[in-house]
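Progress report, Aim 2. The chain analyzed during this reporting quarter is listed below.
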Amino acid sequence: MRPDIQVGARFPDYELTDHTGKRRKISELQGDDPMILVLSRGHYCPKDHRQHHQLVELYPELKVGYTKLVTISTDNLLQTNEFRDQLGAQWPFLSDPKRKVQKDLDIAEYTDPDNDPMIPHTLVLEPGLKIFRIYNGYWYWGRPSNDDLRQDLRELFQKIRPDWDISDPELRAAWERSERERFFPYTKSLRERIAS
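Predicted structure tokens for the chain:
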């Protein structure tokens, strides 16, 4: 992985084709929420299938927990859709058959010249594509379990949500003073905070 891709840095805002054939930027898919970004070998890898089956189970929790999920692979559009459909996945899959991400991040899996995939990684991103956690999944046990992701997200939300501990008396007083900007969904969006 490129040395500047580390915790606290901003992940590149790649624009790729999604499973519907539409060009999408990662920031557009993230919006103002945290995101789990999976850099996948693709449809042919049994380890990727296993990881994605677990993410299918986790996805309803991510959805109600205001967390986005995106998969990027070197699969072509047909393979991307077949992989996504086979899993029953409901989140966006981005197709990168030209290996833009693989080359830019320097994560070519040189031990597999036949498929030329990227070394699988899972990243947990704060709003604004800020890297919170990086998992290297070349070996299966390097990939995060759903419990790992839950713990990461708990820690991340405690960091970014000012109303995390709603029992805090100061928060109660702020609510009574009509200081709604300290409470979700009244908080300013990330774009509004950056602009102001």
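The radius of gyration is 18 Å. The chain is about 35% helix and 20% strand. These observations will guide the mutagenesis work planned for the next reporting period.
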